[in-house]
Amino acid sequence: MHIVCADLEGIFTPEVWINVAEKTGIEKLRLTTRDIPDYDVLMKGRLALMKENGLTLADIQAVIATMDPLPGARDFLNWLRSTLQVVIVSDTFTEFAGALMKKLDWPTLFCHDLTVDDTGIIIKYNLRQTQAKKKTLLALKSLNFKTIGIGDSYNDIDMIKAADWGILFRPPKNVVEEFPDLTVTTTYEELKEAIIQIIKPQFGRAGTKLTIDD
Fold first, then answer.
1. 9 is catalytic
2. Fold observed for domain 1-214
3. Residue 212: other Cβ atoms inside 10 A
4. The CA-based dihedral angle spanning residues 206, 9, 108, 55, taken in that order and rounded to the nearest 10 degrees
């Protein structure tokens, strides 16, 4: 049996922090794991910027409430869930994710959570565990699932490389150049075709790069 571990932002939804940056005008909040591989450095910088500018959890949630899944994401995810077992493994937070999960028909989500003070300021982020994406995938492998990892950023690479089959979806140029051995897809149709190749016995082999037909 196959199971998919997929990132959330950039795969099914827009990047939350980019939208927050656009709404607030705080340009440094545009930085994501596509730009800064070290998640701890990235998050501490975000929390410092929020505190400096008086942004609360409610402010972030108000931005997220205006966001929609990426065009075609809901239909693709519904197809994927009708075909395989799927777990979305994300570095987002439960306090952020609810509005977007509703719009995606409530898929299974593994993520982190936040500590918020009495004024609504986020004072700490709490990892469910370190290397959560990779460890989730490895735990599923230990249950004898054949695993497919899907992501787009630096913080997805360990998960993708640990998977039996790994696929990048709309990655930035720097990620593609640094990891030329990984399969790259740019549309949901290409991603769907890559997955079909994997689950058909006559296609692919664990650990190999797939060729996606134009």
1. yes
2. thrh gene product, domain 2 (3.90.1470)
3. 17
4. 150
Residue ranges in the chain whose pLDDT is less than 70: 201-214
For 83, the 3-state DSSP assignment is helix
165: closest CA among 139, 186, 194?
A: 194
Segment 179-207, tens digit of pLDDT: 999 999 999 999 999 999 999 864 444 44
Please name the helix (run of DSSP H) or strand (run of DSSP E) that holds residue 97, with its range, or none.
helix 94-103
> Is 7 annotated in the active site?
yes
Catalytic: which of 9, 91, 156, 164?
A: 9
Q: Is 131 left (phi over 0), alpha (psi -120 to 50) or beta?
A: left
3-state helix, strand, coil in the chain (%, to 5): 45, 20, 35
Burial class (CB in 10 A: 0-12, 13-18, 19+), 207: exposed
With beta carbons less than 8 A apart as the criterion, state whether 2 and 165 touch. no
Q: What is the dihedral of CA 153, 183, 208, 82, to 10 degrees?
A: 90
DSSP assignment of 129-180 equals STTHHHHHHHHHHHTT-EEEEEE-SGGGHHHHHHSSEEEEES--HHHHHH-T
